Amino acid sequence: MTGGSARAAGPARAAGAPWAEFGRQLRSLRRAAGLTQLQLGLRVGYHHSAVSKLEAGLREPPVGLVRRLDAVLETGGELAAIVAAPREVPGRPGRLPADPALFAPLPGADAPAGQGAPDSRMWPARLPAEGLACPLHGTAGCAVPDPGELPALLDGPGPAGGGPAWGTGGTAAVAEAELLHGLTAVLACLIREAFRREGRVTAVEGLLRALARWAGEVNSAGRLPYGQLRLGAQYAQVAGRLRMERGQIGVAMAWFGHGLRWADAVQDASARATLLSDMCTLVRLDGDPSLMLGYAQGIGAVDARRRWMATLSDLYQARGHALAGDAGECRRHISLARRGFARIGPQDHLEAPWMAGAEGAMRVDSAIGGALRDLAVATGDRAAARRAVDATARSRAQVPPQMRGARLLLTLRLADSWACAGDPGAAVALASEVLPEAVRSRESMVTAELRGLHSRLTGRWADLPEVRAYRERLLDAGE
Predict the structure, then answer these.
(1) Contacts for 104-108: CB closer than 8 Å, 24+ residues apart
(2) N or C, which end of the chain has less CB nearby within 10 Å?
(3) How many other CB atoms are there within 10 angstroms of residue 64's CB atom?
(4) pLDDT, tens digit, 9 for 90 and up, residues 48-74
């Protein structure tokens, strides 16, 4: 028997533990490469606990991860060969087992009656829209159905006791592609509405749970629910962001975790990178620089050829190093991010339109300003704070009028940067413009900025008349 035949036969012998052979081989290859589980996890963009579970044979390896493991460990495709080998699955002959977590119970809730339908005035004509590409055809420019064609599917009874009637029992009248196009358009509308209507988070989650049930039905019928999982990853990202903005960190992380699993299952590199970026933001709110750096490095490991991913990775690494007080590494990654952003090209703009033009420059300056402000807080470096003032002011000047939440956050960050630079008067003057709105805001990132600014002002300059007046206005705004 040849070596290749022996490998192919290995999993079949491991009855009851179909991934044991994969785990044993992964452990052997990792040790031969001189890597720890933590080091390997960082190189492929996964937490070290996931590597541990794979080596123990406790879970099915996602296809995208297998490719990255083969590349990092330089195996010549050995791990992919193990995954591709046929194996016995009780009750489902000839099928590869699904990751048991892929269709696990989901957080959130179904939308209340009347909450699922979007505002038709915000309905896009084509995809991509709001940065959402077609889950089947990418950035090909797919047309979307008229919103009037979807209400019955969005509001009707469906499988598993509620939700839309999608899947094997409810899509006879609507082609699968049309429904996926329409649901992507729905999500674009919900994104546009989300910051004006508090209840939209439940609408997103309700549709997402029904979408996951549909994906489960397609999978049970013996077909990979490719479009459903790609769209599910996009819905999960929006749901996680909305929960994060409301300070519901645990629910947000759960949604991001589901989104990552779905993105891996269909090898959606763009979704994986942006989900990891949101996880960076989440752990930054908890002040965890080491975990943030792990996720940030994971963004760059998704695909080093995509410049927008490398730029995003450097921006988040800069902020992680700033939180840790490492000025040299923070500045190095800021320089790398600026150079990377200058080299972003048309293909990057198709995949990440929010990194193009003035909007991209606004986001880069915002991230750099945040990193320099965090560095000033950690080290007391007023020169870093003055550079934070410059970057944040540039970003704030480019915020479109409809992005009120972004302008509020950047105004507070600019005020805090002035405080870190030693100018409490400028900080108070800026903060006073938005104080009532900031106090009323329920967004966790705005709350964090306001808390940091308050700490800086009252900790250093509590006796200054302008700071005392600021504290009085803050109390009045909270009444």
Answers:
(1) 104/258, 106/205, 106/208, 106/209, 106/212, 106/254, 106/258, 107/205, 107/251, 107/254, 107/255, 108/201, 108/202, 108/205, 108/206, 108/208, 108/209, 108/239, 108/243, 108/251, 108/255
(2) C
(3) 20
(4) 778 888 888 877 777 667 878 888 898
Q: How far apart are CA 120 and CA 300, in angstroms?
A: 38
Q: Which of 323, 337, 269 is nearest to 294 (CA)?
A: 323
Q: What is the mean pLDDT of residues 181-202?
A: 77
Which DSSP helix (H) or strand (E) runs through 471?
Answer: helix 465-478
Look up residue 135 and give its amino acid. P
Reported as half-sphere exposure (CB side, CA atoms, 13 A), residue 16 has a value of: 0
For 78, phi then psi, to 5°, come to -65, -40
Instruction: Give the Å distances, CA to CA, from 374 to 121, 285, 429, 459.
Output: 40, 12, 21, 17
CA-CA-CA-CA dihedral for 8, 9, 15, 17, to nearest 10: -30
Rounded-to-10 torsion of CA 264, 266, 268, 274: -50
Q: In the predicted model, what is the mean pLDDT of residues 154-180?
A: 50
Long-range contacts of 229-232 (CB under 8 A, 24+ apart): 229/262, 229/263, 229/265, 229/266, 229/268, 230/135, 230/136, 230/262, 230/263, 230/266, 230/268, 230/271, 231/135, 231/180, 231/183, 231/184, 231/187, 232/208, 232/258, 232/259, 232/262
What are the residues facing 143 on neighbouring strands? 126
pTM > 0.85: yes or no: no
